[in-house]
Amino acid sequence: MSRRSGRVRNNIRDLRTARGLSQGELAEQVGATRQTINAIEQEKYAPSLELAFRIARVFGVKFEAVWEFED
Amino acid sequence: MSRRSGRVRNNIRDLRTARGLSQGELAEQVGATRQTINAIEQEKYAPSLELAFRIARVFGVKFEAVWEFED
DNA sequence: CGCTGATGTCAAACATGTTTTACACGCGGT
DNA sequence: ACCGCGTGTAAAACATGTTTGACATCAGCG
Predict the structure, then answer these.
(1) pLDDT in tens, A5-57
(2) CA distance A35 to A27
(3) What is the pTM of this model?
(4) Nearest nt (C1') to A25 (CA)?
């Protein structure tokens, strides 16, 4: 599965900066590394389902407010 | 990430049988194999974010109607 | 200028998810 | 009894996501 990239979009950069968080701080809060957050922000790959849930939860918004499926 | 299992719950078995689909038929509709569907139904592991989206879409329900984050 | 924090990136190792192939079981129908 | 179908399971190979450690750039500030 998960063929050519471009399917799962996110706006975690906006959500993150709106809260004055660095990539490293967000990473720490969701239990990941800053490299992972960076890669996800740039949509180099999609996060695991679990990490996607954690990120939405840290932001305090609904899942679909962060993640969108394209196609 | 994705430490000890038990975090992402789903009720795709109910949704699937309610629609009279076999694991193999569902697998085909979401572009996966029946083994993958089987493993996910039994929560042996969580699917990728993309596959999770596809499954919810095939069922025609909202994402949160299929997937739940625990903890 | 030199320092620090934030970000981008890369390669190797590692963890997790997925496919392929194969075999087993139970059940309903013929 | 035999079939066909749906399901559970397993191991190996493969694909994807994640971490670790490192290095580079840039902006802001002393």
Answers:
(1) 558 999 999 999 999 999 999 999 999 999 999 999 999 999 999 999 999 99
(2) 8
(3) 0.94
(4) C6
Asked whether residue B4 carries a pLDDT value surpassing 60, the answer given is no
Q: What's the gap in Å between the CA of A37 and the closest CA on chain B?
A: 12
Mean pLDDT of chain B: 94
In percent, how much of chain B has pLDDT > 70? Answer: 92
- Please give the span between the terminal C-alpha atoms of chain B, in angstroms, as a whole number: 14
Q: Are B33 and B27 in contact (CB under 8 A)?
A: yes
- Report CA(A32)–C1'(C23) in Å, whole number: 40
Cα–chain center distance at A52: 6
CA distance B19 to chain A (A): 23
pLDDT of A6 reads 53
The matching CATH number, chosen from 1.10.287.4070, 1.10.260.40, 1.10.20.10, 3.30.420.10, for B8-60 is 1.10.260.40
Which CATH number applies to A8-58: 3.40.50.720, 3.40.50.300, 1.10.260.40, 3.40.190.10?
1.10.260.40
Which residues does chain B have within 8 Å of residue A8's beta carbon, measured at their own beta carbons?
Answer: 49-50, 53
